Amino acid sequence: MPNHNLADPPFDQGQFLDVVGRVLARHLGGSGVVELIGSHSGNINRILELRYQGRSLGARVALNRQHFRYEKDIIKEVFAILLLYHAGETLDDGVVRGIVDGVLRSPCGSHVAHSAVRAILHYDWTMEELPFPFFIFEWIDGHALWEVPAADRYHRAGRILAGLHRNRFEHFYEDIFAIRHYPRPWADHMRAGYARELAQAEAVLPAALVARLASFDLGQLQPGLPCLIHNDYTGANILADRADNLHVIDWDNWVIDCPELDLVKMKYWTAIGADGRLAHQPALFAAFLEGYRERADQPIDAGRLAAYERLWLLRTHNFEYSREAAGTVVEAGSWQRVYPPAAAYVDILEGL
């Protein structure tokens, strides 16, 4: 496995396109010559829009794994697609373990699809041809939700999320590798995550704020149900196609957790504001929550939502602070430019 204490290797776009061309020639036939239409960088991944044999495709490459805090060096979206086929069920730990182990035994594969997720034509985290995990997918021609911020779309996005949360598990886990082996009660799960983020932040946050966050009473909260949580459910990862159908993308952050966690990002990253940064948009967020409540089979718990709000704000502050401290350069035209700096999350935490 790569050593993540070292810098991520540089990305050679020409080499990458050669590899993708060979993969597509194997799966789709043809010459293997790939046309690059566009390239976009996010916090972790680079997305390349491609055309092959007249077909619109995309490729996603995990380039910034040093700052990625979830399972590294796997294509987690593959696991999510397979689990989504069990919507509405409470999955036995043994069944989930079998799905996970099956994918782990196949670090290179093809043709994984579900109606709720864009189809994956090929995935590879063997690191044999390239030093990065990557996958090739069917391109969805359309716009991100926050580029077309209409209330009815946010309402539908809330309904879609409530449906995704009907994928349930027996227990909570730290990550997918722990499934079946190391289950833990929700209280322990929440305390561990909260303590970890607060410990990372306390050296740079005001002492009074640290004390107030540390005194937040997690013990009085009721456990929620362990669900399939997208964990990056924002206007960037919901696409409206030309027919105005919505598609949920980018599942690499998914976790087993409570539904309330998936509501927080949409609150603070509802849409891009006049200053070009993501911000809370009350009317759009209200439409989103209305849609969610219409379809959810469990009510939103205000106490758990407050806890996950603090957890997410700490986590996001820590992520941005670590990038800023490392002197990470934001490329021109990168999607990273829309994310607020670490100081913005301190201000929000101070106001809670």
Structural class given helices, strands, pairing? alpha+beta
Unreliable stretches (pLDDT < 50, length at least 5) are 1-6
Helix content: 25-40%
Task: Supply the number of helical segments.
Answer: 10
Architecture overview:
- The chain is of the alpha+beta class.
- It has 2 domains: 13-139, 2-Layer Sandwich (Phosphorylase Kinase, domain 1), CATH 3.30.200.20; 143-351, Alpha-Beta Complex (Aminoglycoside 3'-phosphotransferase, Chain: A, domain 2).
- Helix content is 37%, strand content 19%.
- The protein has 10 helices and 15 strands.
- The strands form 5 sheets. Strands 1-2-3-7-6-5 form a 6-stranded antiparallel β-sheet, sandwiched between helices. A 3-stranded antiparallel β-sheet has the order 8-11-12, with helices on one face.
- Strand 2 (45-52) and strand 3 (55-62) form a beta hairpin.
- Helix 5 packs parallel to helix 9 (302-325).
- The longest helix is centred in the C-terminal third of the chain and has 24 residues, at 302-325.
- Mean pLDDT is 91; it is low at 1-6.
